[in-house]
Amino acid sequence: xxxxxxxxxxxxxxAGYDSTxxxxxxxxxxxxxxVAARAGFSIRNFSKxxxxxxxxxxxxxxxxxKIDCDMVLMNFGGNDCxxxxxxxxxxxxxxxxxxxxxxxxRSTYDRMLDYIKxxxxxxxxxxxxxxxxxxxxxxxxxxxxxxxxxxxxxxxxLETDLASHQKKYSDAVVEIARSREVxxxxxxxxxxxxxxxxxLMGPDGIHPNARGQKVINGCxxxxxxxxxxx
Length: 230
Known about the structure:
Elements: E1 2-8, H1 10-13, E2 15-18, E3 23-26, H2 32-38, E4 41-45, H3 53-64, E5 71-75, H4 85-90, H5 102-118, E6 122-126, H6 133-144, H7 148-156, H8 162-180, E7 184-185, H9 187-192, H10 210-229
Parallel strand pairs: 1-4, 1-5, 5-6, 6-7
Antiparallel strand pairs: 2-3
Helix pairs in contact: 3-5, 5-8
């Protein structure tokens, strides 16, 4: 039996936004464990809510001192490309940087790939689910009691919209996977190929709903089947 470790944020943790409670909850619709088990893999999911790639880099090094595995699936970028919206709301005239710059995002992924390969594990990268910008910002302002107009003014001064900004991080994952010749789980393309990608996302605009999680499940199952066939 092979072993698979998963490192990511709340998306790969299987979290979805529950409108009734107003909280993120982990449900059983994601199914990575079932897919891995059918393929003969044991799986450990170390994904954490709010995790950026820099936090994950420290975490992966600590975990690899305790455990090893045959394959490592990673999905980062969603929190890295995000901003401190409270600060933006208070000071919309200031310049605000994302949680992780695109340069640090790329370089940290490279260090992680080197580290994992040196330990004879196969790294697998996953692209990002597409953010629904207006839905997400409405959700952030409502749940954090922020000034939507202030955030709109700041956003209007950006060179690109938030969705395009997030896509740069997802595209960087594709480029890194190609240049480093590591397998890619292209979740984003699967979402974008749907007739109505928005229908796959929850009411917070950043986490997949049950249908979206099933799409990710299908991506993972196709990847595992192809990997085993190879």
